[in-house]
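Lab notebook: predicted structure, single chain.

Context: the supervisor wants predicted structures on file for every construct in the current expression panel, including those that have not yet been purified. This is the next one on the list. No modifications to the sequence; it matches the entry in the shared construct table.
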Amino acid sequence: MNKKIAFLGAGNMAEAIISGFIQSGKVKPENIIVSNRRNRERLNELEEKYHIKSVTKDKLDYKAVDLFILAMKPKDIDVVLEELQGKITANQLLISLLAGTTTSYIENNLNERQQVIRAMPNTSSMVQESATAISPGKYVAMDQVLLAKELMKCIGEAYIIDEEMMDIYTGIAGSGPAYFYNLMEHMEEVGHQAGLDRALVRKIGAQTLYGAAKMLLNRDESPSKLRENITSPNGTTAAGLEAFDRFGGGRAIEEAIKSAAARSKQLSKM
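Prediction complete. Output recorded below exactly as produced.
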């Protein structure tokens, strides 16, 4: 892939994606530019670590860029859109990573028929295992959508969804890692109280969750079927699942997803 890609923002998510691009071999370091407003120290750090080019925004050659990735804080979007006005064309693709910012908002504040794609990775992008949602704006050509998907697959798996589904995606995949970490906290604590080394419990629990996830990804059975396969009548798993139901474990997961999705919708309106 020989396109010039510029990151507007140099935080952790930008670094995770830059790392994924380079490790995949799909994007050459010399084709990546990272930019921020004034933190030269951070830019130097990324340049030295990944051998990419770094510039402050006032030095960026906007016309030489094929694809911009908006990776700044969402609160800075209006300032950035104002900076982009008159500097980019409608044919230059923008991939926005900004939570709560719709493609239409970006389109309405830039060129007529501006090509915009909204992408929402999760924090597992740091280990190239993100579940990333991609939502095309109104004016994006299909080849650009496929390009965005190919790029996002450098940090895990990527799924094209309608933008109105982005809130529920956030509830499931955006916030989802935190639900698993919370589950691990409880598993770790119970194992430690029973006498196991805390670090060992963490490895056992993480491997258990990883193996279960791999079963779901690599086999055709539904979650219900896989659960039934390991639940013998009156056995240990049955006892555990009975407690899960008795204390509202399933309901808690459902409500967590709904609450996160509702908050995502609320933030978008704000």
